[in-house]
């Protein structure tokens, strides 16, 4: 297994964390009799050799030893080794930036050289190895006819359900990788999707057909799939204890510990949903069937799938969301917690579940806050979801939380979603802001959410508390500039209520790192371009974050910022796309020069979707003058996929909110409102 391992100059090779001198020890650890040592070694391999999809020269050096280990029957946990090799060899050789990865191509060649190892492993005595091997054979054995014959043979001989599912997934992969040889594989998948096969296997086959041959699906697919799911669940009902839900993780140890009790069922339905793609009516009907299943595990799986669907696609989601809300009354903690977690990130889309959220909040005061061993608590998920949905029933509960001795740091972040319904909270928010200790390590966490909340409420009576905070912040405080900027934005929103006190403070800040934000606020309060224009023009030549902030502030001045146009036109050609967008918006709003700005904004809209809300806000100010870009807004409204949806499945907690706000803004601009 390790012949030649000491002849490799490991010290000259690199991996994700530096020198590869530790690789021999990790490789030997994979052959250890101690399960914990094997686990640690495999975890280290994933982290070092194949970190976030990258490969290294040490990866190439390890591939032959990994193949040798996988081929030895006495080695335990060989399935993990096969999966690691598949992960290494299946990587595309071209990175997202279009740069060809020579190491990636060489890694694939190295794994392909061991294809015969994978062929032998398809008949291994260990079923976990037999589960991992078919995908490796399909990916790395460059003999399609032989591969198909091997898969067909194994489908006949295999008796383990999990291995049969893996073979089914590999048949789908075969169709996608070898379309010229797909007919035989499709016949096998079609046969597997029909009676008398096991309901789980039929679901697996339907998922593969949905992805690669939708014309072979039954016309009543959803009815069939829901029926199979329930039949499968009924067979499984007596073979588990309690409810578990899918989790995610990146480390091997966490993945193994956090597998759901029905990992296979979760995967089956994910595959089917993925195969259905933009067939949203079918996917919605399928979710309804899952969410009304008598089996709690099926419903838990469905809750997580609902999250992915809503984060990626635009549609009327009221019914699925209401069904997720219905899970809040479940006795199983994990099912309820899964539903809460999903609803937290839906913001206004969670409104159909508001009654269930309000009922849970009312019955479980212990869930109003999450306690932590260190630091202040955070807002509890049910209350956060209710407030984010805009439901005013959250307001009196938030008032009670605000009255407690210790207030969750993030409470202020939900106030803006309640709109005018949160106005009764203003006095308590002001009081809490007045209690913030200037020089505390937690000043940022305490003050910024409160300032955000008071700004959203437009609470002019908060000026004294905001000024007190600004005047007291010591230099050198952690995140001081962020606190100052939040305070300045608050004054820019309602500072004209005490202009005589506010203006001197803002003028002092014109000479600091927060000059651009202070200049914008000062303009809002006193509308004197002579006081802020020289400072903002000077900021255009400063560091990157300050240039963009200055451009945004100058845009607010409109035609009064004419002297800044030369600097802004230079910034339109900046390397950073956000700077280009801010500068282009400013040029257009100040001069009306759409000829320069429009092409820049059109390119950014297409290449960097996260800029779309900023561009739409600019078009809202421009009104009819921005009509040359209205085709982008019409196309956005016609699109079914959310603008921030990621092909890799990644998402941010505010992606749904951002997309809903973009859609709303596009409609308002086109309606002229």
Kindly describe this structure.
A hairpin with a 2-residue loop joins strand 1 (14-15) and strand 2 (18-19). The termini are far apart. Helix 11 packs antiparallel against helix 12 (221-236), helix 11 (199-212) packs parallel to helix 14 (263-276) and helix 32 runs parallel beside helix 34. The chain has helices spanning 23-29, 35-49, 57-71, 78-89, 102-112, 115-121, 127-140, 144-157, 161-177, 182-192, 199-212, 221-236, 252-257, 263-276, 280-291, 296-312, 318-326, 333-344, 354-363, 381-388, 394-403, 412-415, 426-434, 443-457, 463-472, 480-494, 499-509, 515-526, 529-539, 544-557, 565-571, 577-591, 594-607, 612-622, 630-638, 655-671; strands at 14-15, 18-19, 369-370, 378-379. The chain is mainly α. 63% of the residues lie in helices and 1% in strands. The chain contains 36 helices and 4 strands. 45% of the residues are buried. It has a two-stranded antiparallel ribbon.
Topology (elements, then pairings):
Layout: E1 14-15, E2 18-19, H1 23-29, H2 35-49, H3 57-71, H4 78-89, H5 102-112, H6 115-121, H7 127-140, H8 144-157, H9 161-177, H10 182-192, H11 199-212, H12 221-236, H13 252-257, H14 263-276, H15 280-291, H16 296-312, H17 318-326, H18 333-344, H19 354-363, E3 369-370, E4 378-379, H20 381-388, H21 394-403, H22 412-415, H23 426-434, H24 443-457, H25 463-472, H26 480-494, H27 499-509, H28 515-526, H29 529-539, H30 544-557, H31 565-571, H32 577-591, H33 594-607, H34 612-622, H35 630-638, H36 655-671
Antiparallel strand pairs: 1-2, 3-4
Helix pairs in contact: 1-2, 2-4, 3-4, 3-5, 3-6, 4-5, 4-7, 6-7, 7-9, 8-9, 9-10, 9-11, 10-11, 11-12, 11-14, 12-15, 14-16, 15-16, 15-17, 16-18, 18-20, 19-20, 20-21, 23-24, 23-25, 24-26, 25-26, 26-28, 27-28, 28-29, 28-30, 29-30, 30-32, 31-32, 32-33, 32-34, 34-36, 35-36
């Amino acid at each position: 297994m390790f012949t030649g391992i000491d002849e490799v100059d490991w010290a000259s090779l690199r991996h994700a964390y530096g020198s590869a001198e530790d690789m021999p020890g990790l490789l030997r650890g994979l052959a250890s009799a101690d399960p914990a040592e094997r686990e640690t070694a495999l975890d280290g391999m994933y982290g070092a050799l194949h970190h976030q999809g990258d490969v290294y020269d040490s990866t190439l050096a390890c591939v032959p030893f990994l193949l040798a280990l996988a081929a030895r029957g006495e080695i335990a946990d060989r399935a993990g080794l096969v999966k690691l090799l598949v992960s290494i060899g299946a990587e595309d050789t071209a990175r997202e930036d279009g740069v060809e990865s020579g190491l990636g191509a060489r890694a694939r060649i190295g794994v392909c050289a061991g294809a015969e190892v994978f062929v032998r492993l398809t008949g291994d005595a260990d079923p976990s190895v037999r589960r991992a091997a078919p995908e490796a054979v399909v990916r790395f054995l460059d003999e399609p006819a032989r591969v198909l014959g091997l898969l067909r043979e194994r489908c006949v001989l295999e008796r383990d359900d999990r291995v049969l599912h893996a073979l089914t997934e590999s048949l789908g992969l075969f169709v996608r990788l070898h379309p010229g040889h797909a007919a035989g594989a499709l016949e096998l998948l079609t046969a597997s999707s029909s009676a008398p096969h096991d309901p789980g296997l039929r679901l697996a086959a339907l998922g593969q057909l949905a992805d690669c041959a939708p014309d072979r699906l039954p016309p009543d697919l959803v009815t069939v799939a829901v029926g199979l799911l329930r039949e499968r669940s009924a067979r499984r009902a007596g073979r588990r204890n309690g409810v578990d839900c899918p989790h995610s993780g990146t480390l091997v140890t966490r993945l193994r510990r956090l597998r759901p009790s029905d990992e296979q069922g979760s995967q089956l339905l994910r595959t089917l949903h993925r195969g259905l793609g933009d067939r949203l009516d079918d996917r919605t009907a399928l979710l309804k069937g899952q969410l009304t299943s008598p089996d709690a595990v099926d419903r838990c799986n469905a809750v997580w799938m609902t999250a992915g669907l809503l984060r990626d696609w635009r549609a009327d989601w009221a019914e699925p969301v209401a069904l997720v809300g219905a899970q809040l009354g479940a006795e199983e903690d994990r099912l309820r917690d899964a539903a809460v977690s999903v609803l937290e990130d839906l913001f206004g889309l969670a409104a159909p579940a508001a009654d269930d959220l309000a009922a849970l909040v009312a019955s479980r005061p212990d869930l109003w806050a999450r306690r932590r061993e260190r630091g202040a608590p955070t807002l509890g998920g049910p209350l956060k979801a209710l407030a984010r949905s805009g439901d005013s029933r959250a307001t009196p509960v938030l008032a009670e939380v605000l009255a407690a001795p210790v207030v969750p740091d993030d409470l202020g972040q939900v106030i803006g979603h309640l709109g005018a319904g949160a106005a009764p909270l203003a006095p308590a928010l002001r009081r809490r802001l007045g209690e913030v200790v200037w020089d505390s390590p937690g000043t940022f966490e305490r003050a910024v959410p409160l300032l955000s909340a008071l700004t959203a409420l437009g609470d002019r009576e908060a000026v004294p508390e905001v000024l007190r905070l600004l005047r007291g912040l010591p230099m050198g405080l952690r995140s001081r500039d962020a606190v100052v900027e939040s305070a300045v934005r608050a004054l820019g929103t309602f500072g004209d209520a005490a202009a005589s006190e506010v203006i001197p403070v803002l003028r002092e800040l014109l000479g600091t790192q927060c000059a651009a934000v202070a200049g914008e606020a000062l303009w809002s309060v006193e509308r004197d371009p002579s006081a802020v224009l020289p400072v903002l023009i000077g900021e255009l030549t400063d560091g990157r974050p300050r240039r963009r902030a200055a451009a945004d502030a100058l845009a607010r001045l409109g035609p009064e910022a004419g002297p800044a146009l030369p600097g802004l036109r230079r910034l339109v050609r900046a390397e950073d796309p956000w700077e280009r967008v801010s500068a282009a918006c400013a040029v257009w709003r100040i001069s009306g020069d759409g000829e320069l700005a429009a092409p820049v904004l059109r390119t950014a809209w297409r290449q960097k979707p996260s800029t779309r809300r900023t561009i739409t806000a600019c078009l809202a100010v421009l009104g009819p003058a921005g009509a040359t870009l209205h085709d982008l807004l019409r196309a956005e409204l016609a699109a079914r996929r959310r603008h921030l949806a990621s092909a890799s499945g990644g998402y941010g907690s505010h992606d749904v909110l951002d997309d809903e706000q973009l859609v709303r803004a596009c409609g308002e601009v086109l309606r002229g409102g």
